[in-house]
Design a protein that fits this description.
seven-stranded mixed beta sheet; alpha/beta; single chain; 612 residues; 24% helix; Immunoglobulin-like; Rossmann fold; 13 helices; globular
Length: 612
């Protein structure tokens, strides 16, 4: 045994003591207190998994154990991340086995379809590296980070100066560096649960998380670690963690035709009154209220359980939707399947059900859409393709077919067609000083920019629309304002309208996805006082000439849209200039919505259509 390392482990066991690297060089690290976990079945859970050589063929048991927890979190809006470590760390988006070394790839993914990867094992035990990539990934470790290892750390990185205390690169740092990384995750509000099997010392687990053992009397909210004798018992341990997280819980999804609907307000009254709500945070008394999350789930959990609990649930969906039927399943958390349970509809959006003590209940409210639309509706999906719009374009690639299908379900008496147009900006530099119309001088765009393109004429078929969107990519856009004036003006011109294929008598809608403002000498015109000068739009000749065919956003684009019956349905990908876009859309008898994180395109467009 290495005596220096043994001394460090002994110090770790005290938890309240710092572990100092040998040689008297400082670098001591005191394990931080573990934040209390607000337990429930709807959580963001990250896994940091050991794939060192000692795991060997037992890697399949590790993956199966993690899947036990992931499966129980389905239909709750829970999200999952997985990072792993051996000599170095790897991240595993989508449960990829090969993984990635790009930390930005480690993003949250729904538990509903996540498969824990069976990772090949080799190399050393660099716990620090796994914790570090998780901490540095988008949104960090979430509500709960589960760290799994079968051995004590035997490798570390030299501190890179990126957020945790500097530890000298000397013997013993393989113990202190993971503590520093664990402390940094805790400082971000993440509760750590260390799971060890085999040769790993309990003291190592305690140093990462805290002293409260699973099954040792502490509630799951305060449980820090568990030590298991063999891999064959790992699934049982993860099952116990899952059961303790989800006991006495209710998860409510709101969906339309299979698409999640974000922002429904769900209120639950429990009888008898809980002594404590653990979800949502801050709830008290018999009633708690939560809003459906990015994955369209509202989550409730309480302590302790009674012999049985009656739940009264109300659902208030966002604009454009009405509550329909609610169906529920109950999981007794005994390893058996979920089973349907009766739900009584008291009135529209109001339901009651009875659950047994300790169980988890999973409900879904199917929302109803009642749109009053004319018989013929033509929808142009218009996209800003400058660099900042990447996430919106990716969402459109994922959801375009669902959007088309869902609108046909929402308004079965309406004949829809859909088309696609795109734009960036003019690939020129403009100096307008002394022109008399505008004093804006800037490089509008780069060589890849363009002011308007018809990508797909109007069609009733989803396939060509989806294909056109799949081919889109973002780049360019040098200054903030973009060629919105030209892009919207074109849709009101007779030749462009003919090329698009607007049908006679159709309601003509332009759903414009953007995140900035147009070029115009005064964007404040008709909105607020003062002057907001972002230049002139260059028009079809692509040249600035102080007038001529230069376009004004208000007098040309918006006026021509209103005159030709083209309605601007603006989808802002940010809150920037919201009041202006609301005013501009209203001038065409259109609508405005902001694309919030978690909203589907179906939800946003139905919101817009309900404003007509």
């Amino acid at each position: 045994m290495n005596l220096r390392r043994a001394a460090c482990v002994t110090a770790i066991a005290a938890v309240s003591l710092s572990c100092t690297t040998p040689g008297g060089s400082g670098g001591g690290v005191t394990p931080a207190a573990n934040p209390r976990l607000m337990a429930g079945c709807g959580l963001d859970v990250s896994f940091v998994v050991d794939r060192s050589g000692s795991i060997g063929a037992d890697s399949v048991l590790v993956a199966q154990a993690g899947q036990v927890l992931v499966d129980l979190l389905q239909d709750t809006g829970s999200r999952i991340k997985v990072a792993s470590f051996s000599d170095t760390a790897t991240v595993h988006p989508g449960g990829s086995v090969t993984g990635s070394t790009n930390i930005s790839d480690l993003v949250w993914e729904t538990a509903d379809s996540f498969v824990m990867p069976n990772l090949p094992s080799a190399g050393a035990t660099n716990i620090e590296s796994g914790l570090e990539v998780l901490r540095r990934s988008p949104d960090g470790g979430g509500d709960l980070t589960i760290v799994f290892t079968d051995g004590n750390p035997n490798l570390h990185y030299v501190n890179l100066g990126d957020g945790h205390p500097g530890i000298p690169a000397s013997l013993g740092s393989e113990y202190t560096e993971p503590i520093a990384e664990a402390n940094a995750l805790k400082a971000g509000g993440t509760h750590l649960l260390a799971v060890g099997v085999g040769a790993v010392d309990a003291q190592t687990l305690i140093s990462l998380s805290g002293p409260n053992a699973l099954g040792g009397g502490a509630a799951i909210e305060d449980t820090d670690y568990t030590k298991i004798t063999g891999f064959e018992k790992l699934a049982d341990a993860f099952g116990e963690i899952a059961r303790k997280l989800c006991e006495n819980s209710l998860s409510v999804l709101t969906e339309f035709n299979g698409s999640p609907v974000f922002g429904s307000v769900i209120t639950t009254t429990a009888t008898p009154t809980p002594t404590q709500w653990t979800q949502p945070v801050g709830a008290s008394g018999p009633t708690a209220t939560d809003t459906t999350s990015a994955a369209a789930a509202a989550n409730f959990a309480w302590r302790p359980g009674a012999s049985g609990t009656q739940l009264a649930v109300t659902a208030n969906p966002p604009p454009g939707f009405d509550p329909g039927a609610m169906t529920c399943e109950e999981d007794l958390l005994n390893g058996g399947p979920r089973v349907p349970i009766p739900v009584t509809t008291v009135s529209t959006g109001s339901y009651t059900l009875q659950k047994v003590a300790g169980s988890a209940v999973f409900c879904s409210v199917e929302l109803i859409v009642n749109l009053e639309l004319p018989p013929v509706v033509d929808v142009v999906l218009s996209f800003d393709l400058t660099s900042s719009m990447g996430s919106v374009v990716q969402q459109a690639k994922t959801e375009a077919t669902d959007l088309i299908n869902n609108l046909n379900v929402a308004a079965p008496g309406t004949s829809f067609t859909f088309g696609v147009t795109t734009y960036r900006d003019y690939a020129v530099a403009v100096n307008a000083a002394g022109c008399g119309l505008t004093n804006y001088s800037s490089t509008y765009g780069s060589g890849s920019d363009y002011p308007f393109l018809l990508n797909q004429p109007l069609t009733a078929s989803a396939a060509p629309v989806q294909g056109a969107i799949n081919g889109l990519g973002v780049s360019g856009g040098a200054d903030g304002p973009e060629a919105y004036t030209r892009a919207l003006w074109e849709l009101a011109q007779p030749d462009t309208s003919a090329a698009l294929g607007f049908r006679p008598g159709a309601l003509k809608l332009v759903v414009n996805f953007s995140d900035n403002v147009p070029h115009d000498p005064n964007l404040n015109q008709g909105v607020s006082g003062g002057t907001w000068d972002t230049g002139l739009d260059l028009g079809r000749n692509g040249a600035f000439n102080c007038g001529g065919d230069d376009l004004d956003f208000h007098d040309d684009a918006l006026a021509d849209m209103a005159a030709s019956g083209v309605h601007l349905m603006q989808v802002n990908a940010s809150s920037f200039a919201a009041a202006h876009w609301q005013s501009w859309a209203a001038s065409t008898n259109g609508g405005y919505a902001q694309l919030n994180n978690g909203q589907s395109l179906t939800q946003v467009v139905i919101d817009l259509l309900s404003q007509l």
